[in-house]
Please model this.
Amino acid sequence: MTAPPPPVGPENPVETATEDATENATENATENWLRLDTQICFSLHAASRAFNGVYRVILKDLGVTYPQYLVLLVLWEEGPLPVKKLGEHLRLDSGTLSPLLKRLETAGLVRRERSARDERSVEIRLTEKGTSLRARAQEVPRRILTATGFDPTEIGALRERLDELTAALDMAATEET
Model:
């Protein structure tokens, strides 16, 4: 015959201690949720700032900033694009993109042209100088990879996870509105 289970409640000090420990663990976990070093958004922010610092040094040789480099990457890949499409690729609004494009135009790397198909649309095109800069930019990804200390497989896996995170957060933001 087995012994009956111990009584439940304050008369059972083991159970009470376990409940207290669980409550304390939950309270500690909740308190930890509000610590800066537990915030994924802050970890991403810190990594982004660190990346920008490395890009600043590397891109100085090319004479472009990190946001300008991103514009050039899209144009090297896609060719001429309407401003709106370029903004969609970069996830930038026109208020941020317009001054960026103006600086690239002043540097002689891009030009704006009215679309032949739609006079209301402005297309961004690389100039010869912007196109030729691509050859000098070939080393940028390798230098960034070296700076991370990761191998290409690790970078690919991290990028995939970040893309998944971005998609999930985009969906959550859409659901919230």
